Q: What sequence folds into this?
């Protein structure tokens, strides 16, 4: 038996998501990323005495949206608390957070592991403010502080210690990122730090009920790194346990350059934040109708839609999940199927030529000229045998991406409409037959495979415009006649 | 109302030198030995005061989370109220053109 099989991992995740509001959680500074240092600051952000913070209504709505999407219970009586600690990027000496009354309680996020659904149980989602940024590499002897980020609204999404593998963590954070983007409450950009993840990892012998000593792993700036860091941390712990070492409670950081974790903080006396209700901030009470209104405004969620696309529209699991990867894709699909029942064709167009075009042109569904109804017209054009798929995607689509015209007009202008007028086709058919008397004889003697050659010749003569189906029928009629 | 769930201060507890050191560290304060003795004495009195309060029967009384009756004092999500960088840095003991400067810390 593999040594690692004796153990099981227990993982809990804390994910911080910056809310995409315009202004900060408790004052009117902009939260835009990338501004010149210390330009999005007000006396409230700077923690000056005599200032009075006031809660951003939008941030509360966004937190509730996420809570409802994650099946949480919404707390009606909310208070903010002060979490007290000293750090230079925290001007007030405390972070305003929610302690006794997180705005969202319980709930779960569904992931799929090896084809089986699993609910990742949440402990809570609460609102809090972000800290500023420390820059260490400008001076040898000083650290520089930029307070633009201080006060940016965050939700912290905390799971129960219920994940069992790095793969589950990977799927879970991926699903959270899709959800916050879908709800349009956070851009989910892990590199810029608008979505951040800390992992609490412990191991125990299988069958053991008690939780092992946990290590908190920080600095996980991509979903891939979350998976990697958890894997190497579990490996490190098992190695320690197997070799008589002792796992100590620590905070460790992940080093992506060599896939290791290293200790940055031993069990500290710090975890003594002396929380108390913030006296400056009025509590906020939420009414059932207010929560109901937000519930009603929620878009259909990706997992529901994916199932609907499979069960009601007959799409494959792959197509359905691809369409639900981003909301703009799913929205475009939904709009298009208002105009055509050929669901499979719409999915093929969106996930094929259109997606390729968007990727290459670095464009989005919002910026292209192609309207959903025009895409439906294009699909109809193919169904009617006026153009074939390859001509439609290589010749017509590129034009439609830039200007909103009717597909048939473009086909006419490019002179690529398939000719199905029998008189014209007969001309080409006769020419083809006349040009290859020997082949005609061979065909008549039974070499029926030569039909392709004749169709090809007609295609050439017509410059690709002859409808191949009708041409084949005509050719067969004529060749079999005499 | 003070929420003390995570704190080292527990009612009924004797104030020790270690507690004073711990609290001083959390507050980033430094006391001389004499000051510590005075501090310990003060702390003990505070705890006795809380002990006294505990004699009041509060059965059925909800914890008071906030002193004012104001609720839902919220703002719209609008950008306003920022000051210039120069103003922001005006009172900083150490600074350069763009940043507040503090003694070197490495983010743990």
A:
């Amino acid at each position: 038996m593999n040594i690692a099989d004796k153990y099981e991992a227990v993982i809990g995740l804390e994910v911080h998501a910056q809310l995409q509001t315009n202004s900060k959680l408790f004052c009117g500074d902009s939260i835009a990323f990338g501004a010149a240092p210390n330009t999005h600051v007000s006396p409230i952000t700077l923690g000056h005495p005599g200032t009075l913070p006031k809660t951003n209504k939008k941030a509360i709505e966004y937190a509730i949206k996420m809570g409802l999407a994650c099946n949480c219970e919404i707390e009606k009586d909310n208070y903010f608390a002060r979490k007290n600690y000293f750090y230079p990027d925290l001007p007030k000496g405390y972070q305003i957070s929610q302690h006794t009354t997180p705005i969202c309680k319980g709930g779960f996020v569904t992931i799929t592991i090896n084809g089986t659904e699993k609910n990742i149980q949440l402990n809570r989602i609460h609102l809090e403010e972000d800290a500023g940024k420390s820059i260490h590499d400008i001076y040898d002897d000083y650290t520089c502080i930029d307070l633009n980020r201080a006060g940016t609204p965050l939700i912290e999404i905390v799971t129960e210690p219920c994940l069992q593998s790095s793969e589950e963590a990977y799927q879970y954070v991926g699903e959270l990122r899709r959800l916050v983007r879908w709800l349009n409450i956070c851009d989910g950009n892990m590199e810029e730090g608008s979505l951040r993840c800390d992992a609490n990892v412990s191991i125990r012998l299988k069958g053991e009920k008690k939780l092992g000593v946990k290590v908190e792993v920080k600095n996980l700036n991509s979903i891939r790194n979350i998976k990697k860091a958890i894997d190497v941390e579990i490996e490190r712990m098992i190695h320690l346990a197997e070799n008589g070492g002792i796992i100590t409670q620590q905070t460790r950081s992940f080093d992506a350059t060599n896939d290791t974790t290293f200790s940055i903080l031993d069990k500290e006396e710090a975890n003594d934040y002396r929380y108390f209700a913030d006296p400056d901030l009025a509590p906020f009470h939420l009414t059932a109708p207010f929560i109901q209104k937000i519930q009603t405004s929620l878009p259909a969620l990706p997992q529901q839609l994916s199932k609907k696309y499979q069960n009601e529209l007959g799409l494959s699991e792959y197509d359905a999940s691809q369409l639900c990867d981003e909301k703009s894709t799913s929205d475009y699909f939904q709009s298009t199927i208002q105009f055509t029942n050929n669901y499979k064709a719409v999915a093929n167009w969106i996930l094929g030529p259109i997606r390729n075009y968007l990727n290459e042109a670095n464009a989005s569904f919002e910026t292209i000229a192609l309207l959903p109804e025009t895409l439906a017209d294009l699909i109809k054009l193919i169904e009617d045998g006026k153009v074939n798929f390859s001509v439609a995607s290589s010749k017509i689509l590129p034009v439609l991406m830039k200007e909103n015209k009717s597909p048939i007009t473009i086909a006419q202008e490019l002179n690529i409409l398939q000719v199905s007028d029998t008189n014209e086709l007969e001309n080409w058919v006769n020419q083809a037959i006349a040009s290859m008397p020997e082949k005609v004889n061979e065909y008549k003697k039974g070499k029926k495979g030569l039909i392709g050659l004749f169709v090809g010749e007609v295609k050439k003569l017509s410059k690709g415009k002859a409808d191949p189906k009708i041409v084949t029928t005509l050719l067969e009629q004529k060749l079999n006649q005499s | 109302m003070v929420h003390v769930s995570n704190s080292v201060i527990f009612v009924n507890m004797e104030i020790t030198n270690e507690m004073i050191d711990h609290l001083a560290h959390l507050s980033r304060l430094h006391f001389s030995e004499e000051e510590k003795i005075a501090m310990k004495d003060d702390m003990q009195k505070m705890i006795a005061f809380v002990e006294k309060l505990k004699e009041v029967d509060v059965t059925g009384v909800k914890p008071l989370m906030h002193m004012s009756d104001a609720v839902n004092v919220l703002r719209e999500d609008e950008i306003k109220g920022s000051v210039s960088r120069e103003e922001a840095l005006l009172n900083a003991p150490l600074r350069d053109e763009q940043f507040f400067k503090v003694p070197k810390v490495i983010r743990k």
Observations:
- The two ends of chain A are 78 Å apart (CA to CA).
